[in-house]
Design goal:
Elements: H1 2-25, H2 32-115
Helix pairs in contact: 1-2
């Protein structure tokens, strides 16, 4: 991004410096017509530089937005997988504790009936 900005600023500065030189030469009337043409040319160049810069920025923004959407989809899938895994682990934990509780109850039940 900074490279694009630096390039834009450098081109703009060079166009502006040439514009100033031409405007100082404008005092000489013999060059007036050529200077007008050159100024129009520099205006065109400046607008081309600006539109090129804006196009590069739009492309960067579009790519950034696409990457953000890809990352959102990827992380949404990963979080969904994690939620599924967590739910499975919680169910396994519940099942484990129910089985352990059942075993303990059976042992106590058998021990109670043996004592009687």
């Amino acid at each position: 991004m900074s490279q694009i900005m630096d390039e834009f600023v450098a081109k703009s500065k060079s166009v502006e410096s040439l514009r100033r030189e031409l405007e100082t030469l404008r005092s000489d009337t013999s060059y007036d017509c050529r200077i007008e043409e050159m100024l129009k040319h520099f205006d065109t160049e400046t607008s081309l530089i600006k539109s090129s810069f804006e196009a590069k920025l739009r492309n960067r923004e579009r790519k950034y937005n696409q990457n953000c959407k890809r990352m959102e989809i990827r992380y949404a899938k990963e979080f969904s997988d994690l939620d599924t895994e967590l739910a499975r682990m919680e169910q396994d934990e519940k099942t484990f504790f129910v089985k352990m509780f059942d075993k303990v109850l059976k042992k106590k039940y058998h021990a109670y009936h043996k004592v009687k």
